[in-house]
Specification:
The chain folds into 2 domains: 318 residues, Metallo-dependent phosphatases (Purple Acid Phosphatase, chain A, domain 2); 212 residues, 5'-Nucleotidase, C-terminal domain (5'-nucleotidase,  domain 2, Alpha-Beta Complex), CATH 3.90.780. Helix content is 24%, strand content 26%. The protein is built from 15 helices and 31 strands. The strands form 8 sheets. It has a 6-stranded mixed sheet with strand order 8-5-4-1-18-19, with no helix packed on it. The chain has a 6-stranded mixed sheet with strand order 11-12-14-15-17-16, covered by helices on one side.
């Protein structure tokens, strides 16, 4: 809601005040010879009994992609397209009525695309509010930059400035099962109740109340420990919490229908609620999947993909009976439409398919990040992709090699690891001989603002890291590596080769290599995530080493440091940025 009066409202107020200050034509003590009567409006006809519908749209896992760019560099205004589809249901311009659509998001709004990362999520704060969302779920990536920076203390999205005016953001943030030090946090709401208008085919409308319950799967392992468990946060993944709240909303708050809005896979959440759940629809997220189905007992669930390449849509159906009673009649028209490139390009042909408001926000974000989007650090001659390198046992790719090498150089280290979940983008050549890399690309490569942790170890201690990396518990954390060749088979380290020299083979060290020092660099997430392997009982060894002198540095921020490293490399190489194409985890 914009603070203050707009010009039209101010002029109207001045006019009213001016009229009230004029002297009356008839003296106060005189009596008018004629009494004036005000015309009365005819009573509004009662809505006819029958079927009524309320449309619904869900987005999820936008990850900052208010805009996207195709291979040719054309900007795709994906969220502006979704906004226009929402207004097709609510009406455009002066005819727009927010109460004719239920608009929701499943979480992970900000972190990901450079246009959002470089502005700390500002484009999404603005767009979600301007689009009139009714609620958003709390995603795990809302913690990446510190939860205090992505959610206001009153359990709404952050306030912001737009067009030089301050706005108070009223969009509620929902999560009923998030705790801090054992107590429910105050910066999320358990639920929200929205009042909407369901329409009949003849244009009649009836008021309906929808209860929306927020929930999260236990995504603690997907968040940097320093931002989550390290601050006392925890998630209680107990679906009876949802069912209890939903029953309360329908029984005591007069809600005609209840919806679960969860940052968790839609199907899994629907099935976890149980067949006796009062929930009428499940809207999911987190997994980036597209879902449109029902459980075996008929509970519908939807999930709108990710990155604004899709959105979920449905209609809530209601019945008005002869006595004026309203009842919920189910979910219909479930679909997950795609947002294709042709429809979301700003062309004259698409002028009626893109929201002008969200186009303006998108263009403002592009303008604010134009320097970083245009500043070329250098070029690559090998595509940086997530495709597995042959022989790596699905543990190496050119993108991960490049990221590891950058972390090594940031930390002046011999060896570096990245986790599989930390690889968030790719830069293919798309048939070209080379590709420019910009500052903004680096912020896509390193979107989390991770600190780089640097350790001084012996090779004997580094072998512990490799052994842990080959367990099911450690494989996702220490999944990619450069600086050493590790040959493995069936979860066992066979040999280690350093610069062509075998330093370890089948349990035997060469010469004094076991006691020699080695420097290792990893991201904050890898360094601080506690994940004990279920089968072997092996913990992440870095958790213990963080409290010792083995940890020698943890101040450098990955993305800004990587920009500095690449600038230095480009200056020395004539712009060519090297990418290693060899696997360093090698399966035998």
């Amino acid at each position: 809601m914009r603070k203050g009066l707009n010009t039209a409202a101010l002029l109207a107020l001045i006019s009213i005040i001016s009229l009230s200050c004029q002297k009356p034509e008839t003296p106060p003590d005189s009596t008018s010879s004629q009494e004036t009567t005000q015309p009365t409006e005819p009573p509004k006809p009662q809505p006819a009994p029958g079927k009524y519908v309320l449309p619904l749209i869900e987005t999820t896992d936008i990850h900052g992609h208010i805009v996207d760019t195709d291979e040719s560099g054309t900007v795709l205004y994906r969220l502006a397209y979704v906004a226009d589809k929402a207004d097709d249901m609510r009406g455009h311009g002066d005819a727009r009525k927010k109460d004719r659509l239920l608009l929701l998001d499943g979480g992970d709004l900000y972190q990901g695309a450079s246009v959002s990362n470089l502005l700390s999520g500002w484009p999404l704060f603005v767009a979600i509010d301007q689009m009139g969302y009714d609620a958003v779920a709390l995603g795990n990536h809302e913690f990446d930059w510190g939860i205090e920076n992505t959610v206001d203390s009153d359990a709404t999205l952050p306030d912001y400035e737009w067009n030089s005016l301050p706005y108070e953001n009223k969009v509620p943030v929902l999560c009923a099962n998030l705790y801090k030090d054992g107590q429910r946090v105050s910066f999320t709401s358990d639920y929200t109740i929205v009042e909407k208008s369901a329409l009949a085919q003849n244009g009649d409308e009836i008021p309906v109340k929808i209860g929306i319950v927020g929930f999260a799967v236990n995504y603690a392992s997907s968040i940097m420990s320093s931002q989550f468990t390290g601050k006392g946060f925890s998630i209680r993944a107990d679906y009876s919490i949802v069912n209890t709240i939903a029953q309360e909303l329908e029984t005591n708050h007069g809600c005609h229908a209840t919806i679960l809005l969860t940052h968790g896979q839609a199907q899994s959440a629907a099935e976890s609620l149980g067949s006796s759940s009062p929930i009428d629809l499940v809207l999911g997220g987190h997994s980036h999947g597209v879902f449109n189905d029902k459980t075996s007992w008929g509970l519908p669930y939807l999930q709108g993909g990710c990155y604004c390449t899709h959105y979920a849509a449905a209609t809530l159906r209601f019945i008005l009976d002869e006595k004026g009673n309203i009842s919920f009649a189910g979910i219909g028209n479930m679909a997950v439409p795609s947002v294709n490139a042709a429809s979301s390009t700003a062309t004259s042909e698409n002028a009626d398919d893109l929201s002008e408001e969200i186009l303006a926000v998108s263009d403002a974000a592009l303008e604010a990040t134009a320097q970083q989007q245009k500043e070329v650090l250098g070029y690559i001659k090998v595509g940086a992709t997530t495709s597995y390198l042959q022989g790596s046992g699905q543990r190496a790719a050119t993108m991960s090699n490049w990221m590891c090498d950058l972390i090594r150089r940031i930390g002046h280290a011999d060896v570096a690891f990245v986790n599989s979940g930390g690889i968030r983008t790719s830069f293919p050549l798309n048939g070209q001989s080379r590709r420019d890399i910009t500052v903004a690309n680096v912020y896509e490569m390193f979107p989390f603002n991770n600190h780089v942790y640097v350790y001084s170890l012996t090779y004997e201690e580094l072998l512990q890291v490799f052994q842990y990396a080959l367990t099911s518990g450690g494989s996702a954390l220490f999944s990619r590596m450069t600086g050493l060749d590790c040959y493995f088979s069936s979860g066992v380290v066979i040999k280690l080769i350093k610069d062509g020299t075998t330093i370890y083979h089948s349990g035997v060290w060469t010469s004094d290599w076991s006691s020699r020092s080695v420097t290792m660099a990893v991201s904050d997430y890898v360094a601080t995530t506690e994940r004990t392997d279920y089968y072997t009982g092996m913990p992440n060894p870095l958790i213990e080493w963080n409290q010792t002198s083995r940890l020698i540095e943890s101040n450098a921020i990955d993305n800004e440091s990587a920009v500095a490293v690449l600038r230095e490399e480009s200056a020395a190489s004539g712009g060519h940025l090297y990418i290693d194409t060899s696997p360093h985890f090698i399966q035998q």
